[in-house]
Amino acid sequence: MSEMNQMPASADRRRFIGAASVTVAGLTIAPGVMLYEVAHGKAEADAVTSKVRWGMLVDSTKCATGCDDCVTACSTENGWEPVAESKHPTQAPQWIRKLELQDPLTQVTTNLPMMCQHCAEPPCVDVCPTGASFKRADGIVLVDRHICIGCRYCMMACPYKARSLVHEPLNDTQKPDVPRGVGCVESCTFCVQKVDRGDGTTACVEACTAAGHNALLFGDMNDPESEIAKQLRAMPTKQVRADLNLNLGVRYHGI
Amino acid sequence: MRHRLGRLFLLLSALFAFIGFTPVYAGAPKAVIEEPVKGERCVEDEDYMRRNHMELLKHHRDETVHAGVRTKKYSLKECINCHAGKQTGSVTAAKENFCVSCHSYAAVKIDCFDCHSSKPQASAMKHPLTAEGAHLNHQMATQRGGNVSVQDLAGVAK
Amino acid sequence: MASITFREVQGESLKYWALLGGIGVFVVFGLLAYLYMHHHGHVVTGMNNQIVWGIPHVFAVFLIVAASGALNVASIASVFNKPMYKPLAPLSAILALALMAGGLLVLVLDLGRSDRLIVAMTHFNFMSMFTWNVFLYSGFFGLVGIYLWTMLDRNVKSYSKAAGTAAFIWRLILTTGTGSLFGFLIARALYGTSMLAPMFIIMSFAYGLAIYLLVLMAAYAWTGRELGDAVLMRLKSLLAVFVAAVLYFVVVYHLTNLYFAKMGGVEAFILLNGDIYPMLFWVGQILLGGVAPLLILLTGLGKQRAWIVAACLLIVVGGVTQMYVTIIGAQAWPLDMFPAMKVSSTFYDGVINSYTPSVPEWFLGLGGLAIALLMTTFAVKVLRLLPESLDDATVAKLEH
Fold first, then answer.
1. Theoretical Cys-Cys bridge with C358: which of A157, B2, C46, C137, CB 3.0 to 4.6 Å?
2. Which of A3, A47, A200 is nearest residue B69 as measured by Cβ atoms?
3. Cβ <8 Å between A128 and C125
4. Dist. CA C71–CA C83, nearest whole Å
């Protein structure tokens, strides 16, 4: 504390400095754990562990046609251009998109958001030649863009079309929290920048909840007391392409 | 033989004197590096940083990306927060900006900023109600003097 | 091989320099295409987030597969001890090296971050076929290089059989790996099958020998050296066998798929009504690449050189088409995330993906082929790869 280095001239100053130091010190309960952090947040210096498994629950019965709040929130948070504004829509990255399913027999439609499913057995991780596509200990599947060579093999391998290649230079339009660049492959990160800060949620879930739809839920699937774990026990859920046996981090209700 | 050596010696001295006193050589351009905007002290000593900043960045990036370790000390974002240029708000936009000044002088190409934003999180300041802005506010508050108000705390608690 | 004299091609005529120059133009355009693509990003190509691998990969995989197959002639000589093939072996080895170099160059230059090649060679993920490829391809260059050395340097000639066997086994593993690149992908309807690895092996036999024959006939015709019918007829009959085998694999692959109801959609797409793929498949791959060459090679037409050249060219065209259908056709068909449901989205789910190759991609692909031909044309001038004469009398002496 720099205050300690100076010799205070008067008693008043001494008291003020003492009180200020105690306040700040009092905020620290233990090294690295600050009073003001969220219950599930981890300390900055701690590595993530597999004690936590981040997952998402999508209730497609609450998902409306034409609503894309989750998509807008993701593109705002992570800094990718919404596809409607792109000059090259087939080459535009889309981390999350709304799917509309229709049963050909009954014409019944279902809506749901589709993003990286954060598989526990990711095919993209298997095929990446440099190990840039990897699964973090807490279950989030990410691309280490420092070693991604842009071979796009992971894009060939993903059964959910989750990955996008950045086709053109981004010219410093990136968000400081979300580095992304030309020639590298990217996909939904479960807003890892928010998760690591202790926000405990992702941009899409935040937006869906804030708008009152409540179709999305994010949390720690390993914690039996978490909201998502309770909901997963309360209602039947499925994995998309469950036959592939990838043990997904995203579960759907209503498909 | 002695004459030859003597003449050679004279020639070489003249050559070195010429080189030594030529304005072109003596006035070799040096990199113009902008002073940091915020903060008093860098992460480590200047000498250490000049020689080893690439090692710090390279090792800590793996810890950050693969293990989620996001300490502030070696964070690239924190470097940019302090070192972004006053006029351009960036570390690479103009040729005297922090990163690009030395790197273009030394002709060492870096591709950090193909992906990383060269600007600090200024945008978050405009929206104090976002988690990002609230955290930043708190950080600035602790830097200001250590007396964190209840309002500040309430602003960041979820 | 005391009776066979190998001699460098003189390579001083105007025609030789014109040939080098002509191929060189394609190499230059390939390089320019690469620089353009690297500078602007893949936005200038026809590849997108739906069709992820395009014309460069079609050419690259074709060249790599052909490279492996081009080594066949040398393998038959050293590994299977057929004396008639021994004088043909050095050209086979150099062609294998050249085609592999051309194919790899295209593959590597198409990377989104081709400046990170060092990363690819220092960071490995041994679950990935691509990582294995780094070692398989380097090993191929090493082993075939050593094999070529044993053929050219009399001091190490006794190691020729060992080197040849090693190279032969290595290239079988390599081509199995190339086929498995696709065979290991469960995500796409047309991949995820063990058929692809052996199919690639047999395709390598056909493409490699077709290109070898073309280069052999061109080299001998343009240098005025004699190429007898004994050699030519043997090689062309072998080629016919390989082409028939490729057709067999294609038939079995599609027939099996057609038996499954769930594959009905994608098979109809490739065989009946999907975009350009039925035309490419039936006309390009089957008719021009398979049936027509067989008709030529197995009938009296096959005794005439011009027809053999035509058959080989058709096989090459059919091969590139087959690669196009295999690589791009499989990506054009949408992923089946919700079987039996109609899917639509802003990310082109549930729709047939269209692909228009861009000019830089064509030049990059052709540039790879050009590099291979340039290397071969240069190599026959500086190394003693081609026998002075392969007329029937010389060859007959080898048999005894």
1. C46
2. A47
3. yes
4. 16
User: What dihedral do alpha carbons C313, C316, C321, C322 form, nearest 10°?
Assistant: 140
What does the pLDDT look like over A168-211, one tens digit per residue?
999 999 999 999 999 999 999 999 999 999 999 999 999 999 99
- Ordered by start, the domain boundaries in chain B are 1-30, 31-120, 121-158
Closest residue of A to B59, CA-based? A146
Q: State how far residue A102 is from chain C, nearest Cα, in angstroms.
A: 5
Alpha carbon of residue C347 to chain centroid: 34
Residue A175 near residue A64, CB atoms below 8 Å: no
Using the 8-state DSSP alphabet, how is residue C368 labeled? H
Where are the extended beta strands (E) located within A80-190?
96-102, 109-115, 133-135, 141-143, 164-165, 185-186
Q: What is the pLDDT of residues C313-355, one digit of tens each?
A: 999 999 999 999 999 999 999 999 999 899 999 999 999 999 9
Question: Mind telling me how many Å the CA of A242 is from chain B's nearest CA?
Answer: 27
**Cβ–Cβ below 8 Å for A174 and B77:** no
What integer best gives the mean pLDDT of chain C? 95
Q: Is residue C271 part of a domain?
A: yes
Rounded to whole angstroms, the Cα distance separating C297 from C59 reads: 25
Q: Is C229 part of a structural domain of the chain?
A: yes
pLDDT of amino acid A35: 37
pLDDT of res. B40: 67
- Say whether C120 and A240 touch across the interface (CB within 8 A): no
Which residues of chain B have a Cβ shorter than 8 Å from any chain A Cβ?
A: 61-63, 65-72, 77, 80, 90, 92-93, 111, 113-121, 131-132, 135, 138, 142, 145-148, 153, 156-158
Closest approach of A43 to chain C, Cα-based (Å): 30
CA C387 to chain CA mean position, Å: 25
With contact defined as 3+ CB pairs under 8 Å, the chains touching C are A
Average pLDDT of chain A? 88
Find the domain containing C43 and state its range. Answer: 6-399
Question: What pLDDT was estimated at residue A11?
Answer: 59
Q: What is the CATH number of the domain that holds C173?
A: 1.20.1630.10
Q: Which of B80, B111, B147 sits opposite A20 (nearest CB)?
A: B147
Residues ≥6 apart with Cβ < 8 Å to C272: C278
C200-204 long-range contacts (CB < 8 A, ≥24 apart) are: C200/C65, C200/C175, C200/C176, C201/C172, C201/C175, C201/C176, C202/C242, C202/C245, C202/C246, C202/C249, C203/C65, C203/C69, C203/C246, C203/C249, C203/C319, C203/C322, C204/C65, C204/C66, C204/C68, C204/C69, C204/C72, C204/C171, C204/C175
Q: How far apart are CA A246 and CA A57, in angstroms?
A: 16
Q: Do residue A165 and residue C49 have CB atoms under 8 angstroms apart?
A: yes
pLDDT (tens place) for every residue of chain A, 255 residues total: 444 444 545 555 555 555 555 555 544 444 434 333 344 567 888 899 999 999 999 999 999 889 999 999 999 999 999 999 999 999 999 999 999 999 999 999 999 999 999 999 999 999 999 999 999 999 999 999 999 999 999 999 999 999 999 999 999 999 999 999 999 999 999 999 999 999 999 999 999 999 999 999 999 999 999 999 999 999 999 999 999 999 999 999 999
C13/C23 Cα distance (integer angstroms): 16
Task: Report yes or no on C222 lying in a domain.
Answer: yes
Domain membership flag for residue C151: yes
Tens digit of pLDDT for each residue in C171-205?
999 999 999 999 999 999 999 999 999 999 999 99
Contact residues, chain A, for B113 at CB < 8 Å: 172
Specify the pLDDT at position C106: 97
User: Which of C128, C343, C354 to mutate against chain A (most A CBs within 10 Å)?
Assistant: C128
The number of domains in chain C is 1
Least Cα separation, residue B138 to chain A (angstroms) = 10
